[in-house]
Structures are given as C-alpha cells and as structure tokens.
C-alpha cells in the first residue's frame, strides 16, 4: 500500500509530496482498541515513488499462499 503525503523516515509525519510504502500488519480490532496498522517497507521524503494500482499486488497472491 502506498501512503501519499506521509514521510516515515524518522517516525511518521505529514509531509506534502512524500510517499511511504508499507504492508498492512493488522486491521481494526475492538479488543486492543486501535485501528489498521502499517509496517513501513520504504519511504521517500521527496516523493520519488510513484504509486501504481495493481489488483495482484498482494503478498498472499505473490507468495502463492491462497488459491
């Protein structure tokens, strides 16, 4: 997943034109009391990453974990 206007270089901050890419680590949970979480894989504070929508960009699909 790509998050626009988000710089994760040193923590997580709003920064216009920055792009961060990550993997959804968990979804909303009523037990622990927090929402979706993202584990950052890489980030560009200067926006040198161009997000692209791809229906097959899913780790379960790429690693053949599901049929």
Walkthrough of the structure:
The chain has 67 residues and is mainly beta. It has a single domain (2-62), classed as tm1086 (SG structure) domain (tm1086 (SG structure) fold, 3-layer Sandwich), CATH 2.102.30.10. 6% of the residues lie in helices and 42% in strands. The protein has one helix at 59-62; strands at residues 2-7, 13-26, 37-44. A 3-stranded antiparallel beta sheet has the order 1-2-3, with no helix packed on it. The chain starts with a strand and ends in a 5-residue tail after the last helix. The model has no long low-confidence stretch (mean pLDDT 87).
Low-confidence stretches: none
Q: Any idea of the CATH class? A: Mainly Beta
Helix content range: under 10%
- Structural Rg: 14 Å
Which structural class best describes the helix and strand composition?
A: mainly beta
The backbone outline, from C-alpha atoms, is flat
Q: Give the strand tally.
A: 3
Quaternary form? single chain
Strand arrangement across the biggest beta sheet: 1-2-3
Q: Superfamily at the CATH H level? A: tm1086 (SG structure) domain
Q: How does CATH name the architecture?
A: 3-layer Sandwich
CATH topology: tm1086 (SG structure) fold
Mean pLDDT rating: 87
Return the domain count: 1
Cα distance, first to last residue? 22 Å
Which terms would index this structure?
67 residues; mainly beta; 3-stranded antiparallel β-sheet; 42% strand
Give me a quick take on this structure:
The chain is mostly beta strands. The chain has 1 helix and 3 strands; from the N terminus they run βββα. It has a single domain (2-62), classed as tm1086 (SG structure) domain (tm1086 (SG structure) fold, 3-layer Sandwich), CATH 2.102.30.
């Amino acid at each position: 997943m790509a998050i626009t206007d988000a710089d994760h270089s040193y923590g997580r901050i709003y920064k216009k034109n920055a792009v961060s890419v990550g993997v959804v680590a968990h979804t909303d949970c009523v037990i622990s009391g927090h929402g979706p979480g993202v584990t950052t894989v890489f980030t560009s504070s200067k926006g040198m990453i161009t997000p692209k929508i791809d229906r097959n960009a899913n780790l379960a699909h790429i690693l053949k974990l599901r049929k």
